[in-house]
Amino acid sequence: MKHSSPLIIKILRLVRARERVRDLFANPPRTGKSLDPRKVKRSLHPELWTVEGWKLLTLLGKPPSQKHVIFLPGGAYLLEATPSHRQYAEKLAKAHGLTVTLIDYPKSPEHTYRATHELVHKAYLRIQERFPEQEICLLGDSAGGGLALALLTSLRDQKASPRPKRTVLISPWLDLSLSHPQLPAYQDRDPVLPLQGLQQAADLYAGGEDLRHPLLSPLYNDLHDLGELMLVFGTEEIFYPDCQALINKIERSSGTWMEQIVGENLVHAWPIFPFPESREVRKKIADFLLRD
Asked: Which residues are CB-contacts of 158 (< 8 A; sequence separation ≥ 6)?
């Protein structure tokens, strides 16, 4: 397999990707077009529907499996889903038969985590009602990964049934306090995510609450009885230390099992993007989600 990671990192630094992301965090665009069904292949029968006025885009797998993936896209709780998120959802549906629902959940600064979690929980229940024969799995990247893990712990605490048996976390934002002592070193290594921008985004999303609240930072929650997790992250991202901390905590949590894939010399959320290294791991993610 051709390794593109050194070139990718060089390009990201040349185009000043971190500075561009920082500017997006400061002025998050609101186009409302991130889940446009007209941009999805008709063979996947894209359906745009709403829960409490918030958009959901569902793609039907071809050929269909009995698995339904709730996809929570990242963006520091500030940004709308990107075309890369939608295209990844299409690949999961077309190549692997997974039904996928992308959720456009409430974002900061207009909303705080309370509105986000309320909506995502309601959307989860509505998806269960609409697709009662399908087994629901969770998938999230970056902030969406943290949100997926927080939702999973909330469903466990509420004794919801059925609950997701499998959850995929891609470069999840696990600790909004950004307090791990190794983070400053990884700030210099990460060519994408700006630490100061993340700190500001965390404060907006928290709305004055303790940044270590378990719905904000699921790394501080009890992580027992969460089923099967897959964690995918890169060595060149600011969330690397927190992902390692999650692995260590899961090892001590009963009723939770984790597989991890660490991308050597790879950046934040790398499986979402069309890098040569991403193709193999996307197949592994799909196989994990499709297990009986």
From this structure: none
Nearest to 243 by CA among 147, 172, 188: 172
Of 152, 141, 73, 101, nearest in space to 285 by CA:
141
- The letter for the amino acid at 194 is P
Q: How far apart are CA 188 and CA 194, in angstroms?
A: 9
Which residue type is seen at 239?
F
- List, as one string, the DSSP characters of 101-145: EEE----TTT--HHHHHHHHHHHHHHHHHH-TTSEEEEEEETHHH
To 10 degrees, the CA torsion angle through 223, 224, 229, 232? 30
- Mean of the per-residue pLDDT values for the chain? 95
124, 87 in Cβ contact below 8 A? no
Rounded mean pLDDT, 45-64: 95
What's the rounded Cα separation, in Å, for the pair 65 and 58?
A: 14
Asked if 281 and 261 count as a contact pair (C-beta separation under 8 A), the reply is yes
By the 8 A CB rule, do 249 and 184 touch? no
This prediction has a pTM of 0.97
pLDDT tens column, 234-286? 999 999 999 999 999 999 999 999 999 999 999 999 999 988 889 999 999 99
The closest alpha carbon to 142, from 81, 99, 200, 196, belongs to 81
* Cβ count within 10 A of residue 261: 17
